[in-house]
Amino acid sequence: MMKRGAIIVFEGIDRCGKSTQVQLLHDVLQKSRSVELMRFPNRQTPIGQKINSYLTDKAVQLDDHVIHLLFSANRWEARNQMLETIQSGKSIIVDRYAYSGVSFSAAKGLDLDWCKDPDRGLPAPDVVIYLQLSIEEAQKRGNYGEERYETVEFQRKVKDLYENKMKDPSWKVVNASQKPEDLHNDIRSIVESVIQDVEHTPLNTL
Ligand code: T5A
Ligand code: NA
Question: Does the beta carbon of 23 sit less than 6 angstroms from any atom of ligand 1?
Answer without folding.
Answer: no
